[in-house]
């Protein structure tokens, strides 16, 4: 990817709130969205980051075959912050065939398959009307968003575990750099489902309270759901002052299926590549992947210390939203843009002091400071690593 790329339109919806302004207000007020799980059939005693009201969201009638929780969340997000109008304006300017859709997700509409499997006939046949291709299939999300926005450019689905939302920015940038498109909708959407919650519970990774990333006594993650979208285009094609994707880097260390490399080798490689792509220079804040598990947070502390020592303030915003899996990198890219615009370093929520073993500057209260460039980290199962640098020219 050849930086910078402008992001003239952004939107995010999570347990923090619907839209960018609600997200911004929750950050400044230090008001998190995690709560005890109220979904039926889930592991007992856990906390989640749920977006209320998704059951009432309706897709356009002509796209009803795409109906599932994941696409409903995408629909809710597309309607915020003037995002729909901004994309349609780009399509009118460049041509609908010159605007791509590149979106990440880890489970897509798997909840529809879960529900269909529970209703299967005695012979095992799934119920009539169940539409796997338009709901559960990983490609259902970008297909829906492309159809919903009236686009005809490439549609790409990214599923690299918890780096999916961030990796979509990398691949969208590559399409623009290659001249395949002039603009792209990048981002990610993931929603709560039985497989995710029971799966992480089986791994003994779920916290019994709101997650507390970077705390010395952290005890696991809280799963959340979110949608985050950005409209990317060349900086010269965007309005002056648009937030910028200055650089991106990715790596795959393949250390273990579910445990990070203890020395953070892949994380260091991804961060270093992102910084090099952004032309070097300092960063003013690091938005950590910071899930709240013992191993992940410790690894990231090592990786950040390797590159920055304790010179750069860092924190995780998952105490507000929970870990939104394939959407987290996209959601946190929007949060990074808010931090740049507002001069905000959001301190970890519910954490009195960072784990001293990290040896880095973990912010535990909000700080007002000039924030020109943010490094936003995403790491996933299987050794997938991705980092974005977001800021000003």
Short description, anyone?
This protein is α/β, with parallel strands linked by helices and 393 residues long.
Task: Describe what this molecule looks like in 3D.
The radius of gyration is 19 Å and the shape is globular. β11 (285-287), α9 and β12 form a beta-alpha-beta unit. It contains eleven helices and 16 strands. Strands 1, 2, 5, 6, 7, 9, 10, 11, 12, 15 and 16 form an eleven-stranded mixed β-sheet that branches. α8 packs across α9. The two termini are 16 Å apart. The mean pLDDT is 95. It is of the alpha/beta class. Helices cover 31% and strands 20% of the residues. The longest helix is centred in the last third of the chain and has 15 residues, at 294-308.
Question: Structural class, judged by helices and strands?
Answer: alpha/beta
The count of helical stretches stands at 11
Helix content: 25-40%
Ranges where pLDDT stays below 50 over 5 or more residues in a row are none
Taken as a percent bin, the fraction of beta residues is: 15-25%
Compute the number of strand runs.
Answer: 16
Q: Average pLDDT, to the nearest integer?
A: 95
Give Rg in angstroms: 19 Å
- Output the helix-strand order: EEHEEHHEHHEHEHEEEHEHEHHEEEE
**Morphology:** globular
N/C terminus separation = 16 Å
Largest sheet: 11 strands, mixed
Chain-wise SSE layout:
Layout: E1 5-14, E2 17-18, H1 20-29, E3 35-36, E4 47-49, H2 69-78, H3 83-94, E5 99-104, H4 110-118, H5 140-149, E6 155-158, H6 164-177, E7 183-190, H7 194-202, E8 223-224, E9 226-234, E10 244-252, H8 265-277, E11 285-287, H9 294-308, E12 314-315, H10 318-321, H11 328-342, E13 344-345, E14 367-368, E15 373-380, E16 384-391
Parallel strand pairs: 4-8, 5-6, 5-7, 11-12, 11-15
Antiparallel strand pairs: 1-2, 1-9, 1-10, 3-4, 7-9, 10-16, 13-14, 15-16
Helix pairs in contact: 2-5, 6-11, 8-9
């Amino acid at each position: 990817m050849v930086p910078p790329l402008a992001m003239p339109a952004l939107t995010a919806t999570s347990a923090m709130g619907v839209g960018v302004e609600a997200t911004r207000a929750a950050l400044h007020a230090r008001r998190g969205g995690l709560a005890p799980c109220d979904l039926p059939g889930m592991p007992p005693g856990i906390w989640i980051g749920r977006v209320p009201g998704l059951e009432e969201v309706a897709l356009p009638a002509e796209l009803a075959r795409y109906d599932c929780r994941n696409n409903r969340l995408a629909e809710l997000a597309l309607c915020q912050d003037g995002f729909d109008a901004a994309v349609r304006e780009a399509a009118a300017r460049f041509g609908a065939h010159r605007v791509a859709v590149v979106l990440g997700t880890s489970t897509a509409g798997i909840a529809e398959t879960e529900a269909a499997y529970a209703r299967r006939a005695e012979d095992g046949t799934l119920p009539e009307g169940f539409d796997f291709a338009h709901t559960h299939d990983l490609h259902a999300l970008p297909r829906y968003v492309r159809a919903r926005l009236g686009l005809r450019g490439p549609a790409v689905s990214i599923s690299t575990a918890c780096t999916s939302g961030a990796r979509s920015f990398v691949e969208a940038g590559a399409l623009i750099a290659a001249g395949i498109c002039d603009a792209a909708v990048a981002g990610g959407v993931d929603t709560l489902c039985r497989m995710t919650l029971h799966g992480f519970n089986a791994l003994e990774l779920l916290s019994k309270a709101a997650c507390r990333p970077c705390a010395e006594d952290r005890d696991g993650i809280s799963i959340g759901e979110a949608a985050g979208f950005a409209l990317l285009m060349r900086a010269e094609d965007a309005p002056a002052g648009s937030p910028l994707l200055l650089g991106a880097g990715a790596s795959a260390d393949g250390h273990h299926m579910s445990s990070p490399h203890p020395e953070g080798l892949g994380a260091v490689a991804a961060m270093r590549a992102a910084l090099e792509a952004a032309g070097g220079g300092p960063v003013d804040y690091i938005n950590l992947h910071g899930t709240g598990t013992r191993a992940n947070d410790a690894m990231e502390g090592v990786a950040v210390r390797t590159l920055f020592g304790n010179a750069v303030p860092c924190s995780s915003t998952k105490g507000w939203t929970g870990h939104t899996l394939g959407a987290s990198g996209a959601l946190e890219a929007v949060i990074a843009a808010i931090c740049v615009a507002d001069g905000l370093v959001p301190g970890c929520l519910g954490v009195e002091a960072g784990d001293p073993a990290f040896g880095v500057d973990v912010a535990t209260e909000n700080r007002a400071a000039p924030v020109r460039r943010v490094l936003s980290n995403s790491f996933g199962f299987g050794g997938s690593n991705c980092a974005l640098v977001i800021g000003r020219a």
